[in-house]
Amino acid sequence: MPFDRSIKIAPSILSADFANFGAEIRAIEAQGADWVHVDVMDGHFVPNLTFGPMAVKAFRPHVKTVMDVHLMIAPVDPYIDAYAEAGADVLTAHVEAGPHIHRTLQAIRGAGMKAGVALNPGTPAEAVAHLLDLADLVCVMTVNPGFGGQKFIDMTSKVRALRAMIGDRPVHIEIDGGVDPVTAPLVAAAGADVLVAGSAVFKGGSVDAPEVYGRNIEAIRAAAAA
Ligand code: DX5
Ligand code: ZN
Questions:
Q1: What are phi and psi of 14, to 5 degrees?
Q2: Alpha carbon nearest to ligand 1 atom 9, residue
C-alpha cells in the first residue's frame, strides 16, 4: 500500500444490499472504487448495529483493493486481533471510544495493520496532535456516526487545520459522511484525499445495474478534481 495523496473514492458498503455483500464489493471495485469502506457498529458507541469480525473476514476474499475498516465500537482493544485476523488493511478507531487511543493505535500497528484515528464532528483537530506519528490516517466525520444518508456537516476548517498539522507525514485525511459531488470539492480543496461515500455511490444502482455505481463514483471523483 504505497502512500500518495491522490483522491481515492471509498464506497461504504453500509449502503449496499446486506444480503449480497460479495457481489456488491466486486461490483463497486469493477466500477472504479479505490478502497472499500466497512462500517462496524456496536449499538453502544453508536445507536446502530452492523456486523462483526466474522462478516468482515467473509468480505476479505472479495476485496482486491484496500479493505478500510471503520470501527464505531467501544471498547476497541479486545477486538484488534480479530480484525487483523479478518484481513483489515486499515483499522480506524475513534478518539472518543476510550481513554487510551494512543495505546490502541500502537496495538493496531503492532497487529500489522495501518492505523486510523477518527474524530466525531464535535471533537477538535487538536485531539490528534500527539498521535500523528502513530497514525496512517485521520478520519474526519462529517456526520454524527451511526447511519448512512445523513446531511453533510461542514468540517472544512478542521480538515485545513489537520492538513497543516500533518505536514510531510505520510498520513491520509479521510472524510466520512454526506460526501457527494457537491460536498467533495470542499473537502478535497481543504486537503482530504480519501472520500468515503455510501448513499451517493449506491443510489440508483444495483449489482444488476453496476454502471450506475461507476457513474456515481466518477461524478464524485470529477467534482473533487475540479
Ligand atoms: C456513518 C458511516 C459512514 C456512512 C457514510 O456512520 O461511518 O461511512 O456509511 O454514508 P453516507 O455517504 O451515506 O453519508
Ligand atoms: Zn465510516
A1: -60, -25
A2: 148
Give the pLDDT of residue 4.
96
Is residue 37 within 6 Å of ligand 1 at its C-beta? yes
3-state secondary structure of 183: coil
Sketch the domain layout of the chain as residue ranges: 8-225
* Atom nearest to 201 CA in ligand 1: 12
Helix axes 21-30, 211-225, angle to 10 degrees: 50
Counting from 1 in the atom list of ligand 1, the atom nearest the Cα of 145 is 6
How many secondary structure helices (H) and strands (E) does the chain include?
8, 8
pTM of the model: 0.98
The span from the CA of 24 to the CA of 137, in Å, is 25
* Set of cell numbers at residue 171: 498520513
**What's the 14 CA to ligand 2 centre distance in angstroms?**
8
pLDDT 10s digits, 108-138: 999 999 999 999 999 999 999 999 999 999 9
Is 89 known to be catalytic?
no
CATH 1.10.443.10 holds for 8-225: no
Question: For the residues 44-59, what does the mean pLDDT come to?
Answer: 98
Residue 53 pLDDT grade (very low, low, confident, very high; cuts 50, 70, 90)? very high
